């Protein structure tokens, strides 16, 4: 009987929402990921491999995680299929009245309300955002990453650093849930959150979702963020 392994899916730390360049971590985002690395180190985690998207926020999140883990010598593999969907392209394809500024509560809510509508339309094939794959192809790329872990890392611990879209898609896939469920999961995912799956050669099982073991103490509760 094959020994089961564990896949740790990490959402990137807080990025620069509303800035000209979203694809970089904020100062808080670096602290979040380094603290998660420290928490995983205390668990005794020694990852056999790391898969991560090719976006800057994925790379910076892994660098901060590695500092917290004690700079382990571990093979890393860039995996474009773990990159996030393009929210701007989705919003443009969806159309509608101009959104209010992001830096107001009303603007923040309106942005994600419109994004949810666009995600539904993309999943249903009613829109095809420019420069993006179909949702079927996006989902297939995420599943391919999971299959890679099953094929090459059963019995080992593997870190996967990505974004809310791919992680929620992976969870919905493992649960056998409808594609639309991934939207609700995605909107709940917190920065630097940890999702865990048990890895076997023929199946994956969800063990934990969207946890923050590194931010549980009172001093760090203010570090919790979503965007």
Commentary on this structure:
With 227 residues, this protein is of the alpha/beta class. The chain folds into 2 domains: 5-84 and 137-223, Rossmann fold; 86-131, no CATH class. Helices cover 42% and strands 15% of the residues. The chain is built from 7 helices and 6 strands; from the N terminus they run E-H-E-H-E-H-H-H-E-H-H-E-E. The protein has a 6-stranded mixed β-sheet with strand order 3-2-4-1-5-6. Helix 1 (27-42) packs across helix 2. It is globular and about 50 Å long. The mean pLDDT is 93.
Can you give the mean pLDDT? Answer: 93
Strand order of the largest sheet: 3-2-4-1-5-6
User: Helix coverage percent of residues?
Assistant: 40-55%
Task: Give Rg in angstroms.
Answer: 17 Å
CATH fold descriptor of the largest domain: Rossmann fold
Structural class by secondary-structure content: alpha/beta
What is the tally of helical segments? 7
Largest sheet: 6 strands, mixed
Give unreliable regions as ranges. none
- What is the rounded distance between the termini? 42 Å
Level-1 CATH class name of the largest domain:
Alpha Beta
Number of domains: 2
At the fourth level of CATH, the homologous superfamily of the largest domain is Phosphoglycerate mutase-like
């Amino acid at each position: 009987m094959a020994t089961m392994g564990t896949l740790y899916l990490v959402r990137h730390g807080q990025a620069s929402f509303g800035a000209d360049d979203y694809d970089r971590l904020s100062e808080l985002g670096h602290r979040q990921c380094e603290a998660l690395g420290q928490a995983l180190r205390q668990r005794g985690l020694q990852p056999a491999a790391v898969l991560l998207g090719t976006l800057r926020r994925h790379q910076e999140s892994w660098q901060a995680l590695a500092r917290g883990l004690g700079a382990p010598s571990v093979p890393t593999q860039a995996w474009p299929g773990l990159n996030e969907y393009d929210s701007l392209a989705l919003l443009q394809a969806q159309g509608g009245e101009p959104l209010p500024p992001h830096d107001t509560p009303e603007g923040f809510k309106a942005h994600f309300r419109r994004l949810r509508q666009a995600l539904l339309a993309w999943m249903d094939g009613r829109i095809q955002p420019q420069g993006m794959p179909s949702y079927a192809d996006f989902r297939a790329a995420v599943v391919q990453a999971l299959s890679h872990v099953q094929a090459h890392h059963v019995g080992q611990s593997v870190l996967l650093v990505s974004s809310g879209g791919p992680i929620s898609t992976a969870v919905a896939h493992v649960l056998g849930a409808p594609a639309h469920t991934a939207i609700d999961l995605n909107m709940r995912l917190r920065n630097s959150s940890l999702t865990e799956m048990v890895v076997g050669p023929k199946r994956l099982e969800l063990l934990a979702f969207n946890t923050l073991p590194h931010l549980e103490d009172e001093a760090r509760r203010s570090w919790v963020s979503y965007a």
